[in-house]
Amino acid sequence: xxxxxxxxxxxxxxxxxxxxxxxxxxxxxxxxxxxxxxxxxxxxxxxxxxxxxxxxxxxxxxxxxxxxxxxxxxxxxxxxxxxxxxxxxxxxxxxxxxxxxxxxxxxxxxxxxxxxxxxxxxxxxxxxxxxxxxxxxxxxxxxxxxxxxxxxx
Length: 153
Description:
The chain is mainly α. It has one domain (2-152). It contains four helices and no strands. The protein has helices at residues 2-8, 12-60, 63-73, 76-127. α2 (12-60) runs antiparallel to α4 (76-127). The longest helix is centred in the middle third of the chain and has 52 residues, at 76-127. It is rod-shaped.
């Protein structure tokens, strides 16, 4: 029984390998979180740029001023036909921009969700001992399997 317990204990090299493996996992996790943060920043910048371009487009297209100048220079029927074309194009662009903004917002929500899940996974991975050596205590090295309680080592 005592030999069984000695065979189940970690030797120093195995323990060092597991610690190094955990450090590598933490480094990968840190890099993944940084990548998510970078993507979040890029999406924020894209969202800001889209909003600026939309505001500039709306400012540049002042329909009332265009209407006044065209009424004096062209026939009203042609102007109305041209405006209907412009209005339909503006509506299509506005719809496309609204769709793009909603997609960017949903991507931001997804990235935040993934980032939250990574942090939760990170917290659980650091706190658990179940996946290192099943049935063996990390602090004292005792085997606590179904055939041998912790206090009998």
